[in-house]
Write a structure and sequence with these properties.
Strand content: 35-45%
Shape: globular
Helix content: 10-25%
CATH class: Alpha Beta
CATH superfamily: Dihydrodipicolinate Reductase, domain 2
């Protein structure tokens, strides 16, 4: 989503989560939600749960004229544009549309294969996840890891994040 929108570092981030289902010694939350506000006027919502396999959370980008709906990211064949209703957009010509992009059986494998190929061929401009995007994603993943520490709060300022004692 960050690549599609060009967003990198949020201005403000809040989140919550923890281990509420699998009490087996793991240190990865089975429920987590992060809300990130960006200076560009965008709010990102990242939410995940390990407890609802039959009703997965869809990946999508919401906008004023409609939403781009991507599904769950695996077995990807295309995406849909779902138009917002005309009283909101003041434009009745905007219609739903589906975009086929061909099949991608395993997007995780394809992402890793792309990275290795770019390293081997010395083509950094062809990598799907450039360093600035990787840094932004890494910062958000570090924030998610901090959700398990109830005595601490993560504060984000530009591209830096700090852990502070909670009040």
């Amino acid at each position: 989503m960050l690549k599609a929108t060009g967003l990198r570092f949020p201005r403000r981030v809040v989140g919550a989560g923890g281990i509420f289902l699998e009490y087996d010694g793991r240190d990865v939350p089975d429920v987590a939600t992060v809300v990130a506000d960006y200076d560009e006027g965008v709010q990102g919502l990242i939410t995940a749960t390990m407890g609802c396999e039959e009703t997965p959370i869809r990946q999508l980008i919401r906008g004023h004229h409609g939403s781009l709906v991507f599904g769950n990211g695996e077995n990807f064949t295309g995406f849909a544009f779902v138009a917002e209703r005309s009283p909101v957009t003041l434009d009745s010509s905007i219609k739903d549309k589906h975009f086929e992009v061909g099949g991608i059986d395993d997007s995780t494998y394809n992402h890793q294969e792309n990275f290795v190929e770019c390293c081997m061929n010395d083509t950094p401009d062809k990598v799907n996840c450039p360093p600035d995007l990787a840094r932004s994603l890494d910062m958000l993943s570090h924030f998610l890891a901090q959700l398990l520490l109830p005595s601490e709060t993560v504060c984000v300022s530009g591209s830096k994040w700090n852990t502070l004692p909670s009040r």
